[in-house]
Design brief:
heterodimer, A: 369 residues, mainly alpha, 15 helices, 71% helix, B: 644 residues, alpha+beta, 22 strands, elongated
């Protein structure tokens, strides 16, 4: 039976922020791909439009499912994610070194590691909500929670997609720290982590993964790659000045200076054409979105909703931080998409799904009070 | 829903502001960074971005050379110049094209058409206007190239580019065409696959090996392309003196790396001897060092000129070599399959010995053929050979003897033993497009024709007719097994890969493999082959004229529908085969020769093999040394050969 409170409690500000970001993303992608040649907009812009449509449909579905369903099927959804990750290793497509894609329809491929991020957040939140938040976790208490993250982490590592697997670690760390961990545990794992990374690097990574790590640590190694790209991106961003060069007028990305300008380097395109003004607006929208997300968490009447909302905010935040930090030369470059702006179906779908979950938690908060 | 106490929720929610603070700090840093880049340094970046453009010229890596086993260069590179237009820089099309057509003899319409054809390509992709431009055109262009606008001459060449690089050239085109192959541009689909498999190694407009060792060792031979990047201003002039830009240039420029060179196992002189002896007929010669598998000669006739189809394709020539009935592009040595005829008789010989159906003393009577069912199967010698045992059977190639051995052994055993000689399987040679040939079995026939095997067919296949098909390379490998005493070898064309500094990157092993034929069976087969040449009745007596002691086996493969009484000059004449090795007491070379429609093996193919053997052994043994050796051992060996 329909509950009127669903409408009165609807989180309109959150919806508006996302709709505006999504529209800016499409306009910007149109400009970024306009320099590729005739096929590009067919392939990228129209595909993105289609995925946005799919995203909105999934939003409708996600918000109309009862919140209780997510809670009760958390572990099942987590399990399905794991199965998808195993499936991709068996029947997946290999794209430039990593086997991360499943063909679902002709011309439509899905990257299960993206969807699995949400599966992980749901499952892990349920687990965390079952713990006593007032007792910080010690060594033993931490062990079960690590199983949650290690399974998807290792499966995605096996696909050869180091970048995506690291996200699981980052989201895990964010959530577990907020839950509460004893100080000595944090210190010990800090040191242990360094050792583990070195050992994993030396014995378990494929040459392709090693290259990625090497370039991550030292972009200079990749002479025509990262280091060069960052200089190009800096010129594009800087030359935007305050007001920008205007829509479709960015020269640097038009002259193919900026590589991957439809995915990882989408932000420099925006910064060049819309300047400091435009970039600032988008950054504030991102920040507003994260604050609204955290406020959903803070208003959730029980812990499960809190952790799901927190995990989703962490997911968006780490994407934004790694992407923006990379293209602006603040940290080493890794190829991750920028939420709602970068081209890419699976990522966009995950963004909309995550957003749908936030809305869902937000509009059903009364149900527990 | 299992819920914890209200305090518990409040407890965790109290931490949310810290998360908000972390988010806020990160975004403050990003905004500061943007402020720094766009407001503080914005002016500088703006002027950089307005005034300059990056011009990237691809510098093609030079392909490594290919040599013969003695270091003689077979495939080298020559300067190649290309005049192209980059549409991105073509600001004033008419002015540029008028100037261009003024100084070099080109038609404006032709250029416009080429530009139009490329309208869907990206604007920075050079559109080639002249391939392989004559040197004086390029000199003229270079004279006016910088500055791009010459006031006095009224010439304006902005957007025109001359690219010079090294193009593959084959020094002995027709002779080595089939072994070395040629180069081609990969098609779009193939390119995508290559890029995925070997990131950074293939790009559009590249040339890659299309056949032969050029294809199989492409990744070794091709270097790594470089990029010459230059920051230019709006008029196309290089901008200098700005550190940030120099860094850009440096980052974008990459020196090309020359490819590794490939030393093949081929021997130039042996190849020349093969070509001369084949003398324009259709056929193939494969010579192998039976101890190592190194291919000394791999010659297929007719050859073609790979220079005329590498990079730019001479269309008329392409039509000819592609569609002519002589099939110029067919590498007969590895791709063509022929009925082996009598050179196949070693298979029933081995099968008979090993299964115990015959021994050296078993004799059959040849009266010029045998009656089998309703058909009479002839021996080539209509008068008949009389009583024939194994050694004489091989020496005289008596069909009746092998009909009987074949019948005794049966089709499936024959296939099994053909397998020991490597028939019916690819040899694994290191060039593409090899064919496996065909050795039938009863099961194969059932599958292929849904018909049971008929015993009379066993007669045909016992003498290498019927369904039997082998490649000349397989024949050469088979005779190598016999020559080296029954050990497996893998024929290969590459000897070693050497980097531009002369360091050996990789050596291709030439070790003998495991024994495939028992020693006590190899000896009589070897002896039979010695008798073919050195007994008075042998079918290849003429080859005894060689200073080197040759053992061999002739074969005459009937062409389907062939009738020797009809049209001797037509394609219905039989193919002549000869397989051989020499010197028979210490084999250094094994050779297979086929001459299509050449008639008998002894008449057409054996003399070719002899020339090839002479040419190679002249180099590595020498005739004088051979005379000495012969005077010591020759008589006893020869007389031993006639004994039965």
């Amino acid at each position: 039976m329909f509950d009127r409170r669903l409408i009165t409690n609807f989180n309109w500000p959150l919806l508006i922020v996302v709709m505006v970001l999504s529209a800016i993303g499409l306009v910007n992608l149109f400009s970024a791909t306009s320099s590729f040649g005739t096929d590009a907009q067919e392939n990228y812009f129209k595909a993105q439009l289609m995925w946005t449509g799919v995203g909105i449909l999934t939003l409708l579905v996600t918000t109309s499912i009862h919140y209780r369903f997510f809670y009760s099927s958390s572990y099942v959804l987590y399990g399905i994610s794991i199965i998808l990750l195993i499936l991709v290793l068996v029947i997946g497509h290999r794209v430039s070194g990593s086997q991360s894609w499943i063909q679902i329809l002709p011309g439509m491929r899905l990257q299960p590691s993206e969807i699995a991020k949400l599966g992980f957040i749901l499952g892990f939140s349920r687990y965390l909500s079952s713990l006593d938040a007032r007792r910080p976790l010690g060594f033993v208490g931490l062990l079960p929670s690590m199983v949650f993250v290690l399974v998807p982490f290792l499966l995605i590592l096996k696909q050869g997609d180091l970048g995506s697997s690291l996200f699981f670690g980052l989201i895990y760390i964010t959530m577990i720290l907020v839950h509460g961990v004893k100080m000595r545990v944090v210190a010990t794992f800090g040191i242990l982590g360094v050792v583990l990374v070195v050992v994993a690097y030396m014995f378990f990574l494929s040459p392709y993964q090693k290259d990625r790590v090497k370039n991550f640590l030292n972009p200079e190694l990749d002479r025509k790659g990262s280091g060069y790209h960052v200089v190009q991106a800096k010129i594009a961003v800087g030359s935007g000045e305050f007001w920008g060069k205007g829509f479709l007028k960015g020269q640097n990305h038009k002259l193919k200076f900026i590589p991957e300008r439809h995915t990882d380097f989408i932000f420099p395109v925006l910064a060049e054409e819309w300047g400091f003004f435009g970039s600032f607006v988008v950054l504030m929208l991102f920040l507003l979105f994260l604050f609204l997300g955290l406020s959903v968490a803070s208003h959730s009447p029980e812990k499960y909703g809190f952790f799901v909302a927190l995990g989703i905010c962490a997911l968006y935040f780490w994407h934004m931080a790694i992407n923006l930090g990379g293209v602006l030369g603040l940290m080493p470059l890794t190829g991750v998409p920028l939420p709602f702006l970068s081209y890419g179906g699976s990522n966009l779908l995950t963004n909309w799904l995550g957003f749908g979950l936030l809305l869902n938690i937000s509009m059903r908060r009364f149900m527990f009070s | 829903m299992a819920m914890r106490s209200q305090e518990d929720v409040v407890f965790v929610q109290r931490k949310a502001p810290f998360v908000s603070l972390a988010f806020f700090i990160f975004f403050s840093i990003v905004v500061s960074r943007l402020f720094y880049l766009q407001i503080y340094q914005g002016n500088m970046f703006k002027s950089l971005s307005d005034q300059v453009a990056m011009r990237e010229k691809e510098i093609r890596a030079t392909r490594g050379v290919i040599t013969d086993r003695n270091g003689r260069v077979l495939a080298d590179n020559r300067p190649y110049m290309e005049i192209s237009i980059i549409r991105q820089y073509l600001k004033n099309k008419d002015k540029t094209l008028d100037s261009l057509t003024k100084i070099i003899p080109l038609k404006k319409e032709d250029i416009l058409k080429k530009l139009d054809d490329a309208r869907f390509e990206a604007a920075f992709t050079p559109v080639t206007i002249v391939d392989d431009a004559p040197y004086d055109w390029v000199t003229t262009l270079r004279q006016y190239e910088k500055p791009e606008y010459d006031e006095n001459q009224g010439l304006y060449l902005e957007g025109v580019e001359v690219k010079e690089w090294q193009l593959r050239t084959y020094l002995f085109p027709e002779l080595f065409a089939h072994a070395l192959g040629y180069l081609k541009e990969p098609d779009k689909k193939g390119l995508e696959k290559l890029e995925a498999e070997h990131p950074g190694r293939y790009s559009q407009g590249d040339l890659m090996g299309a056949s032969g060792v050029e294809s199989s060792y492409d990744l070794d031979l091709r270097g790594i392309d470089g990029v010459d990047a230059q920051v230019v201003d709006a008029r196309g002039k290089a901008v200098t003196g700005n550190q940030a830009l120099e860094l850009l240039e440096q980052r974008a420029s990459i020196a090309p790396q020359q490819g590794n060179s490939l030393m093949t196992t081929l021997d130039y002189d042996t190849m020349v001897a093969a070509q001369k002896a084949v003398a324009g007929r259709r056929g193939a010669v494969v010579a192998i060092d039976p101890n190592t598998g190194e291919i000394l000669a791999l010659y297929s006739s007719p050859g073609y000129d790979p220079n005329r189809i590498t990079k730019t394709i001479d269309k008329e020539y392409w039509q000819k070599i592609n569609f002519d009935e002589d099939k110029f592009l067919l590498n007969r040595a590895i791709q063509a399959t022929y009925p082996p005829g009598s050179i196949y008789k070693m298979v029933p010989a081995l099968a008979g010995l090993d299964t115990g159906k015959v021994d050296l003393t078993t004799t059959f009577n040849c009266g010029g053929g045998i009656q089998f069912g309703s058909r009479f199967f002839k021996c080539w010698n209509h008068g008949g050979h009389g009583a024939v045992a194994l050694l004489r059977g091989i020496a005289q190639s008596c069909d009746v003897y092998f009909y009987k051995v074949g019948l005794a052994v049966g089709v499936d055993k024959l296939k099994e033993y053909a397998g020991y000689f490597g028939y019916g399987h690819k040899t694994g040679i290191d060039i593409p497009f090899e064919q496996a040939g065909l050795i039938p079995s009863s099961e194969w026939k059932e599958k292929r024709f849904k018909l049971p095997w008929i015993e009379s067919e066993t007669l045909s296949i016992s003498i290498g007719q019927g369904y039997d098909l082998v490649t000349p390379l397989q024949a050469a490998r088979m005779v190598s097994f016999i020559a080296n005493g029954g050990y497996e070898i893998t024929p290969h064309l590459a000897k070693k890969i050497v980097d531009p500094n002369g360091e050996v990157v990789r050596e291709i092993s030439g070790e003998k493999g495991k024994r495939v034929i028992p020693e006590d069976h190899i000896k009589p087969i070897q002896q039979g082959m010695i008798n073919v040449v050195h007994s008075p009745e042998g079918t290849a007596k003429r080859v005894a004229a060689s200073p080197y002691m040759i053992a061999g086996k002739t074969g005459t493969a009937q062409v389907i529908g062939h009738d020797s009484k009809l049209a001797m000059n037509s394609r219905r004449v039989a193919h002549g085969w000869f397989v051989s090795f020499a010197p028979y007491d210490d084999p250094k070379i094994a050779v297979a020769v086929i001459i299509e429609n050449g008639g008998s093996g002894s008449g057409a193919a054996a003399p070719v093999a002899m020339e090839v053997i002479n040419a190679y052994l002249d180099k590595i043994i020498g005739r004088e040394e051979m005379e000495k050796r012969k005077s010591h051992t020759g008589d006893t060996e020869a007389s031993g050969g006639v004994e039965e």
